[in-house]
Specification:
The protein contains ten helices and 16 strands. The strands form three sheets. A seven-stranded antiparallel β-sheet has the order 1-2-3-4-5-6-7, covered by helices on one side. With 385 residues, it is of the alpha/beta class.
Length: 385
């Protein structure tokens, strides 16, 4: 590599090295590659050792998973490059960790990922986009409902609840696995599909354990129609006092018809009440909407009803709405396709997303314009842990 100006830093457990503005490398304190930029090509490596390549085309962010053979080449290339740079680094905050970075390669990262899979007894399905740097802890495995026909994330696992003993062992194993790399974790995400459905006593005991070990804010997926049902305000306040900061709920659509078509038995009035309870308890929410669900036939109904119900939630800047383009799995069918629903193209989904975002961010009135909350895309491919 040519000689360029170099910058390096160790911030919040992440080592970043910038070389000539065209090359950027990020590692945790155990030397695991997190991000790699090579002349504008941006890669994110997941803890499960998948490599996601992202680029912006005509203002749109496009991501794809790199095939394993190419991913191995790119990751080893990043480590080869950084080994050539290491002798020039004089930053005392960085130098104690350089030997770990220099000793790493694709094969070691692959073994590392296999070890993580053993701790979890399987892969991690997804996390929200703002939880890439979470410490993932399983409290319940799978999804108790697991019959929404648009979702196959939990089809490969049987629903079960972990005992406090198993949760304790998992925490100890994760501490050993991450080592000093734990410093790069910003939060705790309790999985899998709906940890909030667990009995309150178990949830409180588990979150107390997590607080004793890590003292990080806690996040979780949730839905209000399985398990022990929505928590009361008192229960939610107890969980908030134990560190619960945000709950993510898959609304999918504000259309009752579409919810029936995707076999999601959620009462929208119960959903609305649950969000209000969370907000009353000072717990923020992440609302997930599927773009393109219902196709062209129900385009307007999906948009109109979804915007209406979200505007009725009184969200604020601590909350977030995620718009997730519909990923149609092989064999997907609506429960009733008598209308012969015509799917949207990816481009049409993005147009729908822009229309929903515009409507959501429009104030209810000139006097009420303070309910501003972020609205962002949620690409399932990028949601890998």
């Amino acid at each position: 590599m040519q000689q360029f100006e170099m910058h390096s830093k160790n911030a919040n457990g992440i080592i970043s090295i910038e070389y000539g503005r065209k090359y950027v490398y990020s590692f945790d304190l155990e030397g695991r590659l997190l991000n790699y930029i090579n002349e504008g090509r941006t890669y994110r490596r997941t803890l499960q050792n998948h490599l996601i390549f992202s680029r912006v085309v005509s203002g749109e962010r496009i991501s794809e998973e790199v095939v394993e053979k190419e991913a191995k080449y790119i990751v080893d290339q990043a480590y080869d490059e950084i080994k050539n740079i290491i002798p020039s680094i004089r930053d005392n905050d960085i130098t104690p960790f350089l030997s770990k970075i220099a000793s790493m390669n694709w094969q070691k990262l692959q073994l590392d990922a296999e070890n993580l899979t053993r701790i979890y007894s399987g892969s991690v399905p997804i996390v929200p986009p703002d939880q890439y740097f979470a410490l993932y802890v399983i409290l319940e495995r799978g999804c108790k409902w697991n019959r929404c026909n648009f979702c196959e994330l939990y089809r490969d696992r049987k629903f079960s609840t972990l005992s406090l003993k198993d949760i304790t062992k998992q925490i100890v194993d994760l501490e050993k696995f991450f080592g000093m790399g734990i410093e790069s974790r910003r939060s705790i995400f309790i999985g899998e599909a709906n940890a909030m459905s667990l009995p309150q006593e178990l949830l409180l005991s588990a979150t107390e354990l997590l607080n004793n070990h890590f003292r990080l804010p806690i996040y979780s997926f949730s839905e209000p129609f399985t398990g022990h049902g929505p928590k009361t305000v008192k229960e939610l306040q107890e969980l908030r006092n134990h560190g619960l900061k945000r709950v993510y709920i898959g609304l999918e659509s504000g259309s009752r018809k579409i919810l029936r078509l995707i076999n999601k038995p959620m009462d929208l009035n119960v959903f609305r009440d649950y969000v209000h309870r969370l907000k009353e308890s000072k717990i923020s929410v992440g609302i997930i909407v599927i773009l393109g669900i219902g196709g062209r036939n129900l385009y307007d109904e999906h948009m109109r009803n979804t915007v209406d119900i979200i505007k009725d939630l009184n969200l604020d800047s601590s909350d977030i709405v995620y718009l997730s383009p519909f990923v149609q799995y092989p064999g997907f069918n609506y429960t009733d396709d008598s209308e012969h629903i015509i799917p949207l193209s990816h481009e049409e989904m993005l147009v729908q997303g822009r229309e929903i975002r515009k409507d959501l961010l429009q104030p209810k009135s000139e006097q009420n314009n303070d309910h501003v909350f972020p609205v962002a895309l949620y690409n399932l491919l990028e949601a890998q842990y």
